Amino acid sequence: MGVEIKVEGLTKKFGSQMIWNDVTLTLPAGEISVMLGPSGTGKSVFLKTLVGLLKPDAGSIWINDRDLTRLREHDLYEVRKLFGVLFQDGALFGSMNLYDNVAFPLREHTKKNESEIKRIVTEKMELVGLAGAEGKLPGEISGGMRKRAGLARALVLDPEILLIDEPDSGLDPVRTSYINQLFIDLNAQIDATFLIVTHDINTARTVPDNIGLLYHKHLAMFGPREMLLSSEEPVVRQFLNAQTIGPIGMSEEKDADELAQEQGQELPPLPPIALQLQTSDGTRRRAERPAGEWCRENGVVPPPGSFMSKNAGVPGVSQHTAHTEHAEPERAVS
């Protein structure tokens, strides 16, 4: 089962350049969280800081009642065994075939014999759909297969926390959909705590249990998926719905003249909130909540057409009459 990660007042600088300041959030145990943000806001830096590859300038990262920022190198090494990391490009060794790439953490960090290593590697490669590709080199396979091989390697030590950096980078929409479904299925099977850094809005709208948004050197918002997808907070609304009206510009922030020109312009309506992706076999994930539950509990009326299913009847029905059982979601239409 995954573990909770509690981040308090985390601050990171490179020299005089502030990357982000006073970031505070809790990644719930066993849940899928997504971290968004415009380019250059330090999302990948945040992942590297969580796993202890970068040291923050201030703040704490609590895992199992231990603050990673204050651990000695030996103790930090032990805590890192809780993590599996999928880097943006897969970070595979080009001279090793996929089998040896996936086996590498087992050979490096355990005393398992080759028979046991083979069993584990075969199991993880089957899990990510790479059975039969063990002998291929990274240069002989597609980008999507390299991502899945990197994911298999991240899974071989049975991590309780999975950090995933830009899984959609370099992938077409179809392959992105496949890997998103794989994350949902994996979370149901291993119950690990997931943190995914991505720019893909469809991923953010349909995969996670929680969403965070880094913007202008701080955490703009973090919370349940439905909270952010129904938010009227300008930067959250603009980013999650890919709108041009709002504080984000081509160079991160719009200047005063650009913002003045937008005064009085009517914002497009919020698109419907799509149903969250379900597991391939229809089983319910432990972290999964019924569609619309957060909105009902907090008295928020979601956009019309939210939580629609192909089996839910007439288009235009809101979450108040949409079902909360498992079903295939329709695309959200604004």
Write a structural description.
- The protein contains 11 helices and 12 strands.
- The chain has helices at residues 43-50, 73-79, 98-109, 114-127, 143-155, 173-190, 201-206, 225-229, 234-240, 256-262, 293-297; strands spanning 5-14, 17-27, 32-36, 58-63, 66-67, 83-86, 161-165, 193-197, 210-215, 218-224, 248-249, 252-253.
- It has a 6-stranded mixed β-sheet with strand order 6-7-8-3-9-10. Strands 2-1-4-5 form a 4-stranded antiparallel β-sheet, with no helix packed on it.
- Residues 311-334 have low confidence and may be disordered.
Summary tags:
31% helix; globular; 334 residues; single chain; alpha/beta; 11 helices; 19% strand; six-stranded mixed sheet; Rossmann fold
Topology (elements, then pairings):
Blueprint: E1 5-14, E2 17-27, E3 32-36, H1 43-50, E4 58-63, E5 66-67, H2 73-79, E6 83-86, H3 98-109, H4 114-127, H5 143-155, E7 161-165, H6 173-190, E8 193-197, H7 201-206, E9 210-215, E10 218-224, H8 225-229, H9 234-240, E11 248-249, E12 252-253, H10 256-262, H11 293-297
Parallel strand pairs: 3-8, 3-9, 6-7, 7-8
Antiparallel strand pairs: 1-2, 1-4, 4-5, 9-10, 11-12
Helix pairs in contact: 3-4, 3-5, 4-5
